[in-house]
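Supplementary Note 3. Input sequence used for the single-chain structure prediction.
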Amino acid sequence: MFAEVNGLRMFYEERGPADGEPIVFLHGFPFDHSMWQHQIEALEQTYRCIAPDLRGHGQTTTLGPAQQPGQVSIAHMAEDVIALLNDLHIQQATVCGLSMGGYIAFALWRTHAPRVRQLILADTRAGPDSEEARQNRFRLAELVLAKGSTAATDAMLPRLFAPANLSSRAAQQIRAIIERTPPAHIVNTLYALANRPDSTALLPTITVPCLVIVGEHDAITPPAEAELICQRIAGAQSPIIVPDAGHLSPLENPTAFNQALADFLRR
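The predicted structure, written as discrete structure tokens, is reproduced below.
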């Protein structure tokens, strides 16, 4: 389905009962809504599951006027999500974000906290990029502009999955998604990620129930980052560690990830 919001023709998948409790799934970079397929299938009998393709990803690729690096931000993406919720007449939802989706979840809490019923933060971090990480993003942006989206796949895939999962069907799925993403959109998002704000000071202000979950072998946002988030959110339990998974824990071990979701949502 598509919604005309914020100058975008935003694609989103919606499944589940119209009167079910809404859950919004926010994908990581540079993926699309389909990374949440196992979670939607597990929850759609009870919950109203909404999974958009975020600005510049998947089928939401019309960015209006020609974009330049720096003109797309995490804040833009958060406002797109709010516009979609408004279009769907949803006043409050559980927000589940992975990696970049987690950054967007923090942005939603920063500016639209009353719209957030609960938070599920998967394989993400609150802090900004280190200077080294920022420069790595800028170098990858140059490489993608020169060589195309395949350069992003080659650079990112080895760190996205646990070593044992690099030849899995999930890894093949992610490779295909990245290579379908226009190079300019990858570049725009790399700049948005590099320039995102520090959300560490935001953590003590989070007052809604919060689940923090991370892959056992996540090399990008390791379990130590998840522990730091939990330490700063009052009442948050220790992070759930998903075994046999790297940065894409919902795809690599959906059984364990879904069990953590179900346990949290039943509280």
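Residues 99 and 124 are 4 Å apart (CA to CA). The mean pLDDT is 95.
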